[in-house]
Design a protein that fits this description.
Elements (H helix, E strand, L loop, with lengths): L1 E3 L8 E8 L5 H12 L4 E7 L4 E7 L4 H10 L4 E2 L17 H20 L17 H14 L3 H9 L5 H14 L3 H33 L5 E6 L2 E6 L8 E4 L9 E6 L1 E4 L1 H4 L5 E3 L4 E2 L4 E2 L4 E5 L7 H11 L6 H32 L3 H15 L2 H5 L2 H13 L2 E3 L2 H7 L4 E5 H5 E12 L5 H12 L5 H13 L9 E6 L3 E6 L2 E6 L9 H9 L3 E7 L2 E12 L3 H10 L4 E5 L4 H11 L3 E3 L4 H15 L2 E5 L5 H6 L2 E5 L5 H6 L2 E3 L6 H34 L6 H21 L8
Parallel strand pairs: 16-23, 16-25, 23-24, 25-26, 26-27
Antiparallel strand pairs: 1-3, 2-4, 2-5, 3-4, 6-7, 6-8, 8-14, 9-12, 9-14, 10-11, 10-13, 15-27, 17-22, 18-19, 19-20, 20-21, 21-22
Helix pairs in contact: 3-4, 3-7, 4-7, 5-6, 6-7, 6-11, 7-13, 7-25, 10-11, 11-24, 11-25, 13-24, 13-25, 14-24, 16-17, 19-24, 24-25
Amino acid sequence: MTISSRTSQGAATTVSRFAVADMECAGCVAKVEEAIARVDGISTVTTSLVARRVAVQHHKSVTRQTIGAAISAAGFTPGETEPTSSYWTSSSWWRSRDRLCTLVSGIFFAAGLAAAAYEPANPARFIWEGIAGWSAWLLLLAAVAGGLNFFGKGLLALQRLSLDMNFLMTVAILGAVIIGEYAEAAAIAFLFSTAERLEEFAVDRARHSLKALMDLAPDTATVRRDGRELEVAAADVVAGDLILVRPGSRIPVDAKVVEGGSHVDQAAITGESMPVYKQFGTKLFAGCINGEGYLEALAERKASDSTLNRIIHMVEQAEEHRAPSEHFVRRFARIYTPVITAIAGFVVLVPPLLFGADFLDWFVRGLTLLVIACPCALVISTPVAVISAITSAARHGVLLKGGNHLEVLGQVRAIAFDKTGTLTEGRLQVTDVLSFDGQLPARILELAAALEQRAHHPVGQAIVDHAARQSDGTGIPTVVDFVTLPGLGVRGRIAGDVYTVGRSDLFAAADRELVALHESRGRTTVLVGRGKEPIGLIALADTVRPGAREAIASLRQQGFSHIMMLTGDHEATAGAIAGQLGIDDWRSGLLPNEKVSAVVELRHRHGAVAMVGDGVNDAPALAAADVGIAMGAAGSDAALETADVALMADDVGKLPYLFRLSRRSRRVIRQNVSLSIVVKLALVAGVVPGAVSLIVAVLLGDVGTSLLVTGNATRLAAAGRD
């Protein structure tokens, strides 16, 4: 999360970063933020619960030691910026003081309840009247063991006059002990400690997902330097190093293949289920697994700047952009806790003083309200769902940059697509080769390729590439007297005859109806002529991406009210592609600013809108949408930086998964928030008439609700592309 400051943005500021290993819950985050924000000269405080890190922007006059002291005063331990690998690994029960206290408390609690079943009821209600029997002692030990998780922090909260969970639980435990309700004291201590452990578990699952990503990158790399093969630390590889990737090994850094060929499993980065063949000129991503082949590649950047590391960093930062629901919950909790605490004080004092009611009875009811005043389950209801969804998406090759974008995605019912490179491959391919004078189509293709290989034009390159794939080994004819006809085509002499390749305007005798027929189908036409007579036609088209039509159909089934295609291409091509995809609304011949206008118009007509593009040429339109989604971001630094959501692979088929996940997440968040609030308010309403006991408040108000919201949220972490 990011909170702002009292310091003017124009002041000279710097950023200090801390690792806070014992910041393990949403309540911890709030306390750290509040403690730092009280320091004069702080601009912003940015926290990551998953990464357990804090970044503080502050005036240069504020020292790192001052900020660290504020963190320590809040009861936490500030550390260095970069944690060790053990920082990401959950400690065992025996190495975690809080977990050990919870375990010991549970053992004593169970033993105390068992002993109570074989003892006569203890008549003493006040501790100073004596404690009879083993059950009371065991229950007291359970209360103390569990209370160790709260007492120290509760005293700190008292010093700060803060009504946080630790203070409320400390008061409730001590109050229950004073009036002789030992079982209730033990229940509060043990069950609230258990609730905290459940919250840790939810965050740990997200942390483990990031740890799994971090573990993908190997520690070492094999490089060739000065003709020698060396095994070096992956962190020591620099741009320009020649790395050697043997079969079955992981790729240490982002690189470009210069020799060899192999299938590479890059599911960890792009989410692609099938390995991708890599050969000369193609990119490799750190953390991916080489298949059966051998590759040599030039490192493009150091390990710390790899696409994998950037994904990890962005998932960590996603917590900074909190969902609207989380902001609502925090505002509600800030009002709810003081109000219920005030009601608890009223319940304890007013009935006995004004109406002569039994003090102990109303004191217990006041303690019950203090327990209910703790907003733990409510506070964690949203962040555990958001963290689970974001880490689940990252495992499927979808990078969500914040809970705010996740929640907005769940509201989107209209979507705009760029055509070229998004719904289509973005590369022209030859679809038809026709001969008019009896020659074989292969000869027409050879003649066109011979001339076009000198033209360096996208259309010509597509013809040359197709001819190379269709070649029977005879080679391309030699061209002399080559001439470029600007805007029209090319001309040259082959085996004594002059040939022309280009637009139909070059040939008076061209079959205009045949050309128009192909262009009406969205194809680009090139005529091949000998002298002034056309002897053949080559048609090319940008082909629809595999799975694009199915993705559009799936989005319609999900209830999208409007799907629009935007393109700068001409009308015939746009219409043909839209027809293949089943898109009814499309706009052609658009400049970048006109795409922005189309997105704005779509929002006015249909509400929240998403825009899908390549993240570079479509950057203005992506920014204009409520959520900008960039495709193929693994190979584009600009797309990773600018988009709200990045599809790491060129796979439009991931969009239905993304929207299913976002809508499911939104439902889970609403369920969690509603459940937490309804249970709390229902318990409050039942306390005053005596219908809700202290034990019931503990079991339902916090532990039960925490278990439900945590379990509900962690389902998102296992959400697949169903």
